[in-house]
Amino acid sequence: MRRETSIHGQWSSKLVFVLAATGSAVGLGNIWRFPYIAGDNGGAAFVLIYLACILAIGLPIMVAEIALGRRGRQSPINTMTTLAREEGLSRFWGMVGWLGVAAGFMILSFYSVIAGWSLSYVFRAAGGAFSGLDTDGVKALFDGLVADPERLLAWHTIFMAMNVLVVARGVRSGLEQAVKLLMPALFVLLLVMVGYAYTLGHFGEALRFLFQPDFSKVTGDTILLAMGQSFFTLSLGMGAIMIYGSYLSSRASIARTSTAVVAADTAVALLAGLAIFPIVFASGLAADAGPGLIFMTLPLAFAEMPFGIFFGTLFFVLLVMAAWTSSISLMEPAVAWLSENRDIDRPVAAVIVGAVAWLLGVGTLLSFNLWSAGIGFHVSWGGEMIYIGGTLFEILEYLTMNILLPLGGLLIALFVGWRMTRRSVEDELGISSRVIFGAWYYLLRFAAPIGILLVFLKAVNLI
Ligand code: PHE
Ligand code: NA
């Protein structure tokens, strides 16, 4: 059975869907998290495993997740239960939607805090706060921000309110223009940054760091982080892309649109890496500086480069916009569910979701100051004592990226690849080339689930 539209509305064209999905995908994951995780994990080996995960697992699952959304045309929770019923399967599959809503809340909570840092940097850049700063100066500036819970709370609150405003009106309003104009601008500005970084004289070192792997240093955790990042960056495994798919017209080609989104997202991440690592090596900053990496490297560039105030302000404005178009997609599954099930008006649903995520986010912003000691315990595992724990931010980040998103992706791959009839799948995708359909179906049925399971097992040292 084909539903033509969702009660929540429809994109006005296929292009708008591509823009919205790109808006969801391109965000802090590319510019903040990709460089910082790559830096923490030794660079190239991580990057290459990440790229392999994008192609062999991420792209096939994106196609599957969009197809589910378009076939169900409801919030992920109701889409999954409806489709399971239609295929004669257990209600258990509604689980995918529930897991996704839970992951969405957790991700949104810290996403908003980091976006808050970016907001604060817009004003620092515009006020000329970077001029004349050296490596110690940018570090002190960043440390000063994260040490101040009240300031963090203010920025976090502002950013969350920005999201509630958009989602309350429906994700379509404003999104189209935002993505059509701002994404290309971000792309061009990143190219400018890469060009500037090239002049610093450490470009070769950065290239080797990012692309010349030393696989002997790879651990199960590196692989898990690379896979988790590939889900996070493509907005997969939690229903964001599924619900965007539910607003897509029945005629659009899912395979083609997914490929475009994945290509854009990957390009932005790699450009961010190429902009940041030459600065890291030129300035003597540590590649594994952690979540503050871009907030310590980029200001150094803006301090030196011609028109640094202009470029710096523009960059952080575009970063905030990219984060904004991502975080609204984090809210959308829960908001759509509240409004279709409980008959709550969309604006009220948006406020509820924003408030819960905001509260959880307070725990993240305290993770960088008052609660920086974190929580945890020691366990013995395979004859070794290991410490499990960290700050609330670290725990939420690890749990969502490395466990919940891949698990959601695994369930999506199993549902579409093994539980739905091949006829329904073919009908929804409408791929005319047998070779392309066959390759995709094979990746979805075998490569993706086996890959995810192996990475999970490897990460806990069972293989
Ligand atoms: N893909 C977004 C980014 O890279 C984050 C995101 C994850 C958005 C999951 C929606 C769902 O920043
Ligand atoms: Na991304």
From TrEMBL:
<keyword id="KW-0813">Transport</keyword>
<feature type="transmembrane region" description="Helical">
    <location>
        <begin position="395"/>
        <end position="418"/>
    </location>
</feature>
<feature type="transmembrane region" description="Helical">
    <location>
        <begin position="307"/>
        <end position="327"/>
    </location>
</feature>
<dbReference type="GO" id="GO:0016020">
    <property type="term" value="C:membrane"/>
</dbReference>
<feature type="transmembrane region" description="Helical">
    <location>
        <begin position="44"/>
        <end position="68"/>
    </location>
</feature>
<dbReference type="InterPro" id="IPR037272">
    <property type="entry name" value="SNS_sf"/>
</dbReference>
<feature type="transmembrane region" description="Helical">
    <location>
        <begin position="260"/>
        <end position="287"/>
    </location>
</feature>
<feature type="transmembrane region" description="Helical">
    <location>
        <begin position="181"/>
        <end position="203"/>
    </location>
</feature>
<protein>
    <recommendedName>
        <fullName>Transporter</fullName>
    </recommendedName>
</protein>
<comment type="similarity">
    <text>Belongs to the sodium:neurotransmitter symporter (SNF) (TC 2.A.22) family.</text>
</comment>
<dbReference type="GO" id="GO:0015293">
    <property type="term" value="F:symporter activity"/>
</dbReference>
<feature type="transmembrane region" description="Helical">
    <location>
        <begin position="12"/>
        <end position="32"/>
    </location>
</feature>
<feature type="transmembrane region" description="Helical">
    <location>
        <begin position="223"/>
        <end position="248"/>
    </location>
</feature>
<dbReference type="InterPro" id="IPR000175">
    <property type="entry name" value="Na/ntran_symport"/>
</dbReference>
<keyword id="KW-0812">Transmembrane</keyword>
<dbReference type="InterPro" id="IPR047218">
    <property type="entry name" value="YocR/YhdH-like"/>
</dbReference>
<feature type="transmembrane region" description="Helical">
    <location>
        <begin position="348"/>
        <end position="375"/>
    </location>
</feature>
<feature type="transmembrane region" description="Helical">
    <location>
        <begin position="89"/>
        <end position="114"/>
    </location>
</feature>
<dbReference type="Pfam" id="PF00209">
    <property type="entry name" value="SNF"/>
</dbReference>
<keyword id="KW-1133">Transmembrane helix</keyword>
<keyword id="KW-0769">Symport</keyword>
<keyword id="KW-0472">Membrane</keyword>
<feature type="transmembrane region" description="Helical">
    <location>
        <begin position="439"/>
        <end position="460"/>
    </location>
</feature>
<feature type="transmembrane region" description="Helical">
    <location>
        <begin position="152"/>
        <end position="169"/>
    </location>
</feature>
